[in-house]
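During the reporting period, our protein records have gained a structure token line. A sample record is set out beneath this paragraph:
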Amino acid sequence: MIQKTLQQITDMMDCETNSTFSNVTIEGVCIDSRKVEQGNLFIPFKGENVDGHQYVRGAIEKGAAASLWQKDVPNPPNDLPILIVDDPLVALQQLARAYREQLHIKIVGVTGSNGKTTTKDMITNLLSTQYSVQKTEGNYNNHIGLPLTILSLKQDTEVAVLEMGMSAKGEIDFLTKLARPDIAVITNIGEAHLQDLGSREAIAEAKLEITNGLHENGLIVYFGDEPLLTRSLARENRFRICTFGYSDQNTLYPVNIHQSHDGSVFSICGLDNVQFELPVLGKHNVLNALAAMLVANELDVSFESMKESLRHVELTKMRMEIIEGQKGERIINDAYNASPTSMKAAIELITYLEGFEEKIVVLGDMLELGPDEKIFHEEVGKSMNAEKIEYVFTYGPLGEHIARGALTVFPKDRVFSFRDKQKLIDQLRSVITGKEIILVKASRGMKLEEVVQSLKG
């Protein structure tokens, strides 16, 4: 992580400090006074309800070496190592940008509507066989989280895998110009953020902003089956291109995919006789693995090393996480996020998964889909196969539209819709025998992991 004296920091961002403290050394940064570690630079943000400046003295007493202080906030403590700045957020971003310039490191930037975190995790796993790698932790993928991640990078880190999220146009542009990736990955273009951006075309444009910070002759890896990306990048000559997808027109595509309750087995073009094992369910996750493999190949990781690494890949929680329930049922916890594309992919997975007597789906609201949100939900319900899925449970006001669509193909006694989570749990428990597989999926705001927790053995 960043280790600098206050004098050095004044050369990295616009600030003023008392020369008495110029030799004070900071180690790492922190924006939460409750989580301050020894030597941190504390960053106080001034919000509508809470002003972080009131915690500056306490943060230093807990071990922080120094703190920023916003210029228009009165009474900065003269007896403490303080850096006066116009805006602590801008200063944080300036510091991260300057620190990134000093690092001799490869940066992999990852964006997309679905699968960003899973792909980031897979890339990290593959590269860790050969390099010292750090990645974005949690959801630190925005204008605050990305600078914090960059400033947490160790001097000896060789590759950083940075997730870049967005909700509006221009946000990826800012992040990629801050991180300046050597490799950029776009996992796909879905419907998330339709509410803010209005169309899939606009979403594609926003995701493509990741190329704005890409190093000259850098590599972009993207989902080649997406026409919105292919058309935009067809005449691109500023950087190199590799694609992944199901079509044989891609640089890397699967020759076959086999799904079991333990995960996925697949082979790839050019290595038809080699089987790659992935302890993660879903064909869409095989695509995420292909994206990761292209990145690893660019950095000279052998396919033999990738094969071994993929067998033991570990993903962030609540992404196709397989859990055993109290009666022995299997639960697929995919409750971190949802869009029509990812929900249909998860439903398709459970529909054709073999080895279970019954299949149950528990689906909640998909958020931020804009004016057509009810139509998207109803289409998900209509898309389900009543011959393969025994019960449909929905949660939330938009989930009711999933149920409405499902009732066009399912009998009434196999579709249940709730706005009360506990009532859903009680009804779900009443139909479980222990021989089922249960998919639980919704947008993060629905907190459907609470359903999973209630069923865990």
